Amino acid sequence: MPPAPAAVTGRAPDPDRVPARAVLRLAAPALPVLAAEPLYLLVDTAVVGRLGALALAALAVAGVVFVQVTSQLNFLSYGTTARAARLHGAGRRADAVGEGVQATWLALAVGLVVLGVGQLVAGPVTRALGDQPEIAGPAESWLRVALIGAPLVLVTLAGNGWMRGVQDTRSPLVFVLAGNGLSALACPVLVHGIGGWEGMGLVGSATANVIGQSLAAALFLGALTRAGADSIRPRPAVLVQQLALGRDLLTRSLAFQACFLSAAAVATRFGAGAAAAHQVVLQLWNFMALVLDAVAIAAQSLVGAALGGGSAARAKALAAQVTRYGLVLGIGFGAVFAALVGVLPPVFTPDPVVLAAIVVPWWFFAALQPIAGVVFAIDGVLLGAGDAAYLRTTTLLAAVLGFLPLIWASLVFGWGLAGIWSGLAGFMLVRLAAVLARLRTGRWAVVGVQRP
Predict the structure, then answer these.
(1) Which residues does 351 contact at the CB level (< 8 Å), separation at least 6?
(2) How far apart are CA 167 and CA 26, in angstroms?
(3) End-to-end CA distance of the chain, in Å?
(4) Beta-strand (E) ranges in 310-364?
(5) Which of 6, 53, 154, 275 has CB 3.0 to 4.6 Å from 268, enough for a Cys bridge?
(6) Alpha helix segments (H runs only) across 52-169
(7) Does the pTM of the predicted model rise above 0.70?
């Protein structure tokens, strides 16, 4: 008879440890879903880059506005996952799906408000951020078309949320690949044309995004109608509860928005080349943030289910695991991007001015990957536990103490992109200290179907 594991290792196996394959089973399909919106803009960046630095700078201004407006509403995804996962862990799947129904109603309502208000302010916002008319004008045109997709993006966020809560990350993978693939095929045709048609230019990329977002949203709505919720009617009591959690997550997202909008505004003051270089690296940062967040999404679902099922010990074991996974992935990605500093930037633009400016933010981007891996992993743990109030407060502190002072000092003293990305580094270091401190206390691990 072979020896027991304890005899081989000298210690008993941890009963609360989740096998790595269980985390991978949820994390691997979640990756393309998380990366969907940044991937839309990465495709845009590569395609629009062939139009020149001014078009790329216009995309930088409009793209950051659209991403920040939609991503700051990510409580429709993260908040729904936290609530649905606890219900799923307690064996109440129909109620978990019901959270998705209410989140989808909320997504449609908020999305229509975003579309209406966005059309009213698109001109003033892009002129304020774009500085130069040749940047602001095309940016406004792109943003007006892209805003049509806002309700669709929010419906997709709500769909991701409840599906992660019931530990289904494979269906969202199929839905997002379908929408993203359609957008990627349409983008170069609509921007540059085909045959004798000259294309739509910059606006073509926004149109392609809306086409892909429409398909993805339709697939999520279809899945929701088949999932077996007790009712598809709006339930005001549940909507109020979701909004209460969303308040903290929205405030946290506003801190991100203030930081990245400030960075975009300052970058344009250093010229079109600097703004375009910042756009390329920022979109890669957004993309990699979500790549690293794939493990955290698995933790969100598993931690929520563990706490809903009454096991704080299992939730804490998961937290330690995903923190290690995030660190290892961050170190690996940092090394890869450091090695590709002379290879990858020309994929996005052939402009020599942009390529010369991109070197400084690129090294910041590569060096910050290990820190980001740990921060995003623990973010996922705390979001799965519904610890949104702590994340709100510490993110605001990180913005005020780490990011914004260096961003605006870089404008005053002419530090350029080095100053802007130093601000991002300060932001991440403050967040790292805050989430590590919270993880050590264990006060986030509150059991029950709902966090008090």
Answers:
(1) 49, 52, 53, 56, 273, 276
(2) 7
(3) 50
(4) none
(5) 275
(6) 53-71, 75-89, 93-130, 133-146, 150-165
(7) yes
